[in-house]
Amino acid sequence: MTTETSDQLDTNIDAPSQTVVTSSIVVPSTSTAKRSSRNDALPKRRASSDFSRHNTEEAKRPRLDMTSNEAKKRGQRLFGVLLGTLTKFKTESQNKSEAEIKREQIDQKLQEKLKKDHEELVEKMKREEQERREK
């Protein structure tokens, strides 16, 4: 019987397809090779100082020439459009506030009406109760 178990152990050790796992996590030996090939495919990052130096040297935008009449007229038109938009927004917001005032007035009227109706019902119930007591 001991020879059978030793034969089984020998076959397990000699078999290259079977692996002995001592823990529940198996780490393949090819994982490091895959990682290195993946890292080689990605571009490397630049240092931030190199990037900022590269931008300032390469792409400086020239100032607009505001001395020409066309540029001045364009600026005035854009400013006029901006002011028009602002005044339109201001008038719309005032109109909204007027509408809100109207809504508040309507709500107040409804509240007063409900209060009067409630008071009338309370008085009516009191009268009916008194009439029942008298009978």
Explain what the structure shows.
- The mean pLDDT is 76.
- Helices cover 75% and strands 0% of the residues.
- By secondary structure, it is mainly α.
- The protein is flat.
- It has helices at residues 2-14, 31-41, 48-58, 69-134.
- The chain contains four helices and no strands.
**Terminal CA distance:** 112 Å
Largest sheet: none
**Could you list the spans in which at least 5 consecutive residues all have pLDDT below 50?**
none
Beta-strand content: under 5%
H and E order:
HHHH
Structural class: mainly alpha
- The radius of gyration over CA amounts to 44 Å
Quantity of strands, as a count: 0
Estimated helix fraction: over 70%
User: Mean pLDDT, rounded to whole units?
Assistant: 76
Note the total helix count: 4
Shape descriptor reads: flat
Q: What would the keywords be for this entry?
A:
4 helices; mainly alpha; Pinin_SDK_MemA; about 140 residues; about 0% strand; 11195_t:CDS:1
Secondary structure elements and pairings:
Layout: H1 2-14, H2 31-41, H3 48-58, H4 69-134
What would you say about this model in short?
With 135 residues, the protein is mainly α. Helices cover 75% and strands 0% of the residues. This is 11195_t:CDS:1.
